[in-house]
Automatic annotation (TrEMBL):
NCBIfam families for this protein: HEQRo_perm_3TM
Membrane disposition: Multi-pass membrane protein
Biased composition (Pro residues): 243-252
This protein's name: Amino acid ABC transporter permease
Keywords of the record: Amino-acid transport, Cell membrane, Membrane, Transmembrane, Transmembrane helix, Transport
Stretches that traverse the bilayer: 40-62, 74-95, 107-124
Family to which this protein belongs: Belongs to the binding-protein-dependent transport system permease family. HisMQ subfamily.
Top-rank taxon: Bacteria
Pfam families: BPD_transp_1
Record region (Disordered): 238-270
ABC transmembrane type-1 domain location: 36-230
Length: 270
């Protein structure tokens, strides 16, 4: 018979493996000063790039011409179907190997490009569904006022469609933050390491998983506030501006004076 560890020792080993507070405290300074900033830069750059790509792709997807829709449909289907890790490697390793080096040898730019391409494919479908949910009469009314098709879409239809898909966009932005952890595969240089890269280095050095818990707390500090902020904005947009404070009701104990027509001086008229 094989002997098992006493429950007390097993629980102590479990806590020490995942919640070694000394190791977490040692890892936090580097996570915050270097990893958190780089994660924000990668995620923010990818989100901006993804939104720009998604708006263009969504407009193409809504075209009535099949040849116009086809390139956007291929792009969306391919990059939504590929695993994220393959896209990161194709962009960050494949492009430089093929001699296409828009960012030179700096892996930071390729990291933003890879996550942005993936984000754009998912966000394009979100925009398309939001724009299609707007009443067609909105576009017709804008065209009847003399606006061109592109101007009517940009000023009237697209803003309404984006407003309707804010929660879905928030979910995609949170996903972009989390997927930024995969850029560690590109071998970021010193000073460019994001949260997961730093935590993974500490795990390899100490053979303890507590640095991953510290990195997870940093990710949660980004994703949870973003979710609640967008949900609050969505609620405010749906409910509209708050009504002004109504005037205080008149005191019933005060005597009521009859209204007098303008130009009279109380009492009998002339």
């Amino acid at each position: 018979m094989t002997s098992s560890s006493p429950p007390g020792l097993a629980s102590e080993a479990l806590l020490n493996t995942f919640f070694n507070w000394d190791l977490i405290a040692q890892t936090f300074p580097r996570l915050i000063t270097e990893g958190l900033l780089n994660t924000l830069v990668i995620a923010a750059g990818a989100i901006v790039l993804g939104v720009v790509i998604a708006l263009l792709a969504a407009m193409l997807l809504l075209s009535e011409r099949r040849l116009v829709r086809l390139p956007a449909r291929v792009y969306v289907d391919v990059f939504r179907g590929l695993p994220v890790i393959i896209t990161v490697m194709l962009v960050g390793v494949g492009l430089p190997a093929a001699g296409i080096r828009p960012f030179g040898t700096d892996p930071f730019g390729y990291a933003i490009l890879a996550i942005g391409i993936i984000s754009g494919a998912y966000t394009a479908e979100i925009f398309r569904s939001g724009i299609q949910s707007v009443d067609p009469g909105q576009l017709q009314a804008a065209r009847s006022l003399g606006l061109s098709y592109l101007k009517a879409m940009r000023l009237v239809v697209v803003p309404q469609g984006i407003r309707r898909v804010l929660p879905a966009m928030a979910g995609q932005f949170v996903k972009d933050i989390k997927e930024s952890s995969l850029v560690y595969l590109l071998g970021l240089a010193a000073g460019q390491r994001e949260l997961y890269f730093i935590a993974q280095e500490e795990v390899a050095r100490t053979y303890n998983s507590s640095p991953l818990i510290a990195a997870g707390l940093c990710y949660l500090s980004l994703t949870i506030p973003m979710t609640y902020l967008v949900n609050h904005l969505d609620r405010r947009l749906r409910e509209g501006p708050r009504p002004a404070t109504p005037p205080a009701p008149a005191d019933p104990d005060l005597p009521k004076t009859p209204l007098q027509p303008a130009g009279t001086a109380g009492g009998e008229g002339r």
